[in-house]
Amino acid sequence: MEIMTHSASLQQDPPTHPAPPPKASTRKAGGWKAIKYIIGNESFEKLASMSLISNITVYLTTKYNLSGIFVVNVVYIWNGSSNIASLAGAFVADAYLGRFRTLLFGSIASLLGMGTMTLTAAIHQLRPPTCDGRHQSHCPHPKSWQLAFLFIALAFLSLGAGGIRPCNIAFGADQFDISTKKGRSQLESFFNWWYFSFTIALVVALTAVVYIQTNFSWVLGFAIPTACLAVSITIFLLGCHTYFFKKPQGSIFADIAKVHVP
Fold this sequence. Notes:
The chain is mainly α. It has helices at 2-12, 32-53, 56-63, 69-97, 99-122, 144-164, 168-173, 181-215, 218-238, 252-260.
């Protein structure tokens, strides 16, 4: 009887096993040692790009003697092209190049564009003669080749935006193993730091750099963002040994197109 009672108690109360320990990440690359380079790259890039975006209308009006609907068209077409390029950059990154290469090529394109804008401010022959502002309707207009040089600079900047905007924060998120609790916690912290650095860069761009452009020198005001982009690329490349690289796995845009193609 005692044996039967003991057997029944074993059936009712099976032995408990300790819960398995939390899964640890096996990745050697990535994490916070990579994030510091990515946030540094983003901070200097945003400082450069926002200082131009916020003041481009003033530059075109005062230095290229453009006004009215033409300036509005140039700015809106440039902004629209940058947004469309971001969609193309996301597709290329997901399907072919990966986020690291897309980011690198975008940063180089932005550097070329910002450097070209600096040349337009530094070399007087690339712009029409300065207008005194008293006879705005009689100010000399830029020649076709001068506008072409300006549009080349804006095109490089749009290409750069197409490579940077869709990939920077996503490449940072790639550095954390979200299958672990620690990785998910670090990812949330990364977003906080990313937006904090973005805000600081935005404040500096909209105050210090814009003030220099408007009140001191457009050459210096454009040279500072150009230097920031060069520093941005340098920081980004210095972190190559710390990054975790995800291989391109196809784009969601291609999958959506396949659904609609009979």
